[in-house]
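Closing statement on the zinc ion sub-project.
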Amino acid sequence: MKKKKKRKIKDPLRFAVGVAFLALIVMLLVFLIAAISGCFRSKPNPSVEEPVSSVEPTLPPTPSPSPTPEPSWEEQRLADIEHYVRAYGNCPNEAAIEARMATMAIDPEAKMVAFTFDDGPRTGITNEVLDICEENGVRATFFIKGDNIASHEEELMRMLSLGCEIGNHTWEHTNIEEIPASEIREAIGSVNEAIESRFGYTIRLFRPPYIKYGDKGSETRNTLVALMEEWNMAIVNHTRSTHDTYASYTAERIYNRGVMETDELGKKLDGSIILCHDKQQKTVDAFRKIVPELLSRGYQFVTVSELLHYSKDGFHAGWIYSSAN
Ligand SMILES: [Zn+2]
């Protein structure tokens, strides 16, 4: 009995140990099965959630570009001119607008010359230059000073309505070599902004007063070129100066020097940029003779931008042009 009793006490203990051992084995097996099944679980693991993006679902792709192609430079040029013909051209009817627009045509194969007038607008003088442009259906480029804008809006509107080009000649005729490079942005940018805000017109050309734009590699030049690139503008020098500001140059001499001499001596007039100033009467008198003469010789009077866009090189922001190649 004692033995039995002892056995009875001993057996449950062994039984419990056995159960515990078995339980441990089962747990190990379960763990092993779980681990193995985890290894072969198909990916991606559905128990792992994709990170939730805080960004709104992306919009459907933008529709394919409109079938209408971008206007060419020439189409855009004509559209811009027509806008100003309608806005400022004093054209009484559609026929008058059409007649004005007909004078804007350019033959890329024919000879071209770009006359430029600096330092204006000047009361009286600038309007006389514009009269000559209007009477002959020709265009020119005016490098204006910013401090002339407010008092000469009429002339500026008339330039635009005749397809002429407005260029930048700084606000107050600043020699940019004589100011800190940090001030160049304001000297030029102020003119761009004034013309843009008043007329919605974007200036593309800069002519440095005194034709001073810093030596290559200088801080002035580097700053200027960087600004031109930023504003999509080019720097315009000239092929030939008429020297019309020299006291000794009469209208006749300007006519000869600026034009006839060049053409008759076989020098390059086609593709050239001619420097004049719309601030004295003799320049007007010379221009009045020059225009019909050169028209009869087959030249087209175009703006500097037109000249550059039709040249082999084309227009490039930051470039310095003395003529069109
Ligand atoms: Zn000047």
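Residues 118-119, 169, 173, 209 surround zinc ion (CB under 6 Å). With this model delivered, the sub-project is considered complete and its resources will be redirected to Aim 3.
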